[in-house]
Amino acid sequence: MSRKSKIFTIIATAGGVIFGSLVILYLMGRFTIRIDSDLVRYHVIIGELQEILSTLKDAETGQRGYLLTGKDDYLIPHEQAVARIHQEFETLEARARAGELSVSDVDELWKLSSQKLDELHKTIFLRRTQGLPAALAAVETDIGKNKMDLIRALVAKMTTNEEAALANARRKADALVYERNLLFVLSTLLNLAVLAWAYRRIREETEGRERAALETLRQKELLEVTLASIGDAVIVTDIAGRITFLNQVAEKLTGWKLSEALKQPCSKVFNIINESSREMVESPVDKVLSLGTIVGLANHTVLMRRDGSELPIDDSGAPIREPNGTVRGVVLIFRDFSEHKAAEHKLLEANDALEAANRAKDQFLAALSHELRTPLTPVLATLTNWEASDVLPAPFHADIQMLRRNVELEARLIDDLLDLNRIVRGKLSLNLELIDAHELVQSVVNMFQSEINAKQLQVAIGLNATRHYVKGDSARLQQVFGNILNNATKFTERSGHISITSADDTEGRLILTFRDDGIGMTQEVIDRLFQPFEQGFHVSNRYGGLGLGMAISKALVEIHAGLITAGSEGPGQGAEFTVTLPSIHASTMKLPVMSGAHPRTRPNVKGIRILLVEDHEDSAEVLSRLLREKGYSVETSATVAEAIRLATEQQFNLVVSDIGLPDGSGVDLIRQMRRHSSVPAIALTGFGTDRDISRYKEAGFDAHLTKPVNFQKLEMIINQFFSDGNG
To answer: Which among 278, 461, 543, 707 could bridge 373 via Cys, Cβ 3.0 to 4.6 Å?
Structure first.
C-alpha cells in the first residue's frame, strides 16, 4: 500500500471513530458553563430586586430628612435614588423582555414604585410651599406606608420565584452529575485510544521521512570524513609566480606532470574561471604576492584542466616567508570540490524533501480538521436550533444541551491538536489586551463551580497581589488557568481542598499559585508533565485525558514572557502549580471602560434573499431548511460555477459560502463577486487558523465562522448585517 493510501486509511478510520465518540465528549465540557451561567443569573436577578427596594428606601430617607429640617442638602439622597431607580427598572424591563422575569410583575412593581415616588414628591412639595404641618398631615394618611408595604410584598414574591428557579436548577445539575461523569470517562477513553492509534500511525510515516533525512545526513558526514582523509593537491611557486613543485594529487587534478609544469607560470597550469559567468578569476598566487596574506577562492570556481575538462575546486593560498619575514614564494593548496558540491546538491534535495514533508503534514492536519469539523455542522446547527425553540418537549431540552456541548467539545479538542501544531511551528498568535488576572482567575473558578460542588471540594481564594494587571491574550490565559484548575479538580478526592493565591515578587511580576491535596505526582511524572501526550499510566487509565493541556499551557505562558512550574512532595501529597507573569501596576495604565451592550432587534427577514454555497449535502440541507424556517429566502449551490451563475441571474442580499468547493474555493468565488457586487458575505469553513481567517477577510468576506457552525451564532451575524439600518 502506498504512503498516500496509508494516510487516507488513517484519516478515514480515525475520523469515523472520533466523530462517533467525541460528539458526547465535547458537549459535556460546555454543560458546566451553561449551568453556572443560569445559577449566576438567578443570583443577579435576586440582587437587582433587592437593590430596587434599597433605592426606594434611600429615596424615602432623603424625603424624611427634608421634611424634618427643610434643608435642601437632605434631599441629595432622595434625588440620587430617583435617578438610580429609572436605570434599575430599565435593567428589569430588559430581563422581562428576555423572558427572565414576569412582564406583569415588573409592570406592577414600576407602577407601585412610581406611585411611591409621586407620594414622596408631593410631601416634599407641601413642605416647601406650605410648611411642615401640611407635609406631616399628608404623611399621616399612611398612603406612603401602604404603597411601601405593597412594594415589599411584590419584591418578596418575585424573589421567592427566582429562588425557587435557582433551587430547581441546582437539583437538575446534581441529578445529571453521575451520568455526565460516566459518559465523560467512557468518551475520553475511547478518544484517547483512537487518537493514540492515529498519532502512532502518523508518527510512523513521519519517522520514515526522518530516517530518509538522517540517511542523507550520514552520507554527507561520510563524504566529509573521506575528503578529510585523502591528501590535498599542493602547488608551490617562486616569487615570480612560476611553479617549482606539484604533488601527485595536483598532477592528477590539473593533468600536468611535474616535469612539464616546472618553471611554467602558475596561471597556465592552475587556470581557473567563474562557473557562472565563465570569466577568468584572478590567480590566488598573484593575490598572495600582492597582499602578502592568506587568501581563498570565491565560491563557484572551476579549474580548467589540461585536457579541457572542468573541475570545481576549493583552495587557499599562503605566502612562504623567510625567518626575517621576506616572501620567497607561495604555497597553493586545493582539492577536488566535485563530491562536496554533489553532497550539497543532495543536501538541498533532502532539505526540499523535509520542507515538502512539513507542508504535507500541515495540509494533512488542515484536511483532518476540515473533515472532522464539516460533518458536525448539520448536527450542531440542528441542536442549537432545537435548543432555542419550543419544537421539542421540555424533558428533551437537557439532552439537547448535553449533545450540543459535546459537539462543541469535539471542536475544542481539534483546536487543541491544531494549537499544538501551531506552537511547534511557532505560528501561534496572540490578541494582546490589558487584563485583570484576579478577575480572570475568579471567572475560571466560576466555570468549574459545578465540578467543585459535585466533589464537595473546599476552594480557598486569596488574591492579595497589588500588581495584578497583565498584558496578554485573555482567552489564552483563561485556557492556562482552566487547565490547571481542571487538573486540581480532577485529581483531588471528594471533600478535598484547593487554594488559589496571588502575590507580587521583587521583580515586578505576578505570582499565581494553585495548590491541592490530591493524588500528587512522582518526580518522574513532573519531569515529563509539560511534554505533549505525556501522562502517568495509572493517571491516564483512571482519569483520562490526552496529555496536551499542560504542554499547551507551558507554551502559552512562555509566549507571554512568563514561567509555569509544577511540584509535589510525592504520591498522595497533593500538587502545586505556579504561574509567573510580568505585571503592570494599575496606576500606570488607563483601564478600558466597558460600555453597556444593547440587544439588537431581529430584522424583518421578509424579502432578504440568501445564497448558500455548500457542497456537503447534509450541511446544505440543514442550514437552508433552518434559514427558511426563520423566514429567509434561500438558494443553494454546491459549486463556484453554479454560485456565479445564480449571483448573475438573481439579486441576493447575503452570501454564505463554504471555502472548500469541488471546482475551486470560496475565496475564488468572493473575489469574482467583489468585482461587481458589495453584498455581505460570510465564510463557513473547517480551516480555522489565524492565517486562514486573514486570507478570507483579505479576499472580501465580511465575517467568518469555523465549523461546526452554531446556528444561533450564524443567525446573530446575519442579524448584525440587517439590523439598525445595515445591509
So the answer is: 707
Could you tell me if 551 and 483 are in contact, meaning their C-beta atoms sit under 8 angstroms apart? no
Q: How far apart are CA 234 and CA 284, in angstroms?
A: 13
| Residue type for position 261 | A
Q: What is the dihedral of CA 578, 584, 587, 588, to 10 degrees?
A: 170
Domain 609-722 belongs to what topology?
Answer: Rossmann fold (3.40.50)
Q: Does residue 143 have a pLDDT over 90?
A: no
What is 198-231 written as a DSSP string? Answer: HHHHHHHHHHHHHHHHHHHHHHHHHHHHHHHHSP
pLDDT level of residue 341 (50, 70, 90 thresholds): confident
Q: Taking the domains of the chain in order of start, what are their residue ranges?
A: 3-198, 231-336, 433-588, 609-722
- Give the pLDDT confidence of 296-331 residue by residue, as tens digits: 765 668 888 888 888 887 777 888 887 777 888 988
Mean pLDDT along residues 514-524: 92
Q: What's the CA gap between 342 and 125, in Å, rounded?
A: 103
d(CA 442, CA 462): 11
Q: Which residue has the cell 399621616?
A: 140
The SS3 of residue 574 is coil
Coil, helix or strand at residue 682: strand
Q: Assign domain 231-336 to its CATH superfamily.
A: PAS domain (3.30.450.20)
Q: Which residues are 706's β-sheet partners?
A: 685
Helix axes 132-139, 103-129, angle to 10 degrees: 150
Report the alpha-carbon distance of residue 121 to residue 128 in Å, rounded: 11
List b or e across 553-589, with b for residues whose CB sees 16 or more CB atoms inside 10 angstroms: bbbbbebbebebebebeeeeebbbbbbbbebbeeeee
397, amino acid identity: H
Q: Residue 567 corresponds to which cell in the numbers above?
A: 511540584
Residue 724 pLDDT > 60: no
d(CA 429, CA 422): 9
Q: pTM of whole model > 0.90? A: no
In contact, 373 and 147? CB cutoff 8 Å: no
CATH code of the region 433-588: 3.30.565.10
Assess contact for 523 and 567: CB atoms under 8 A: no
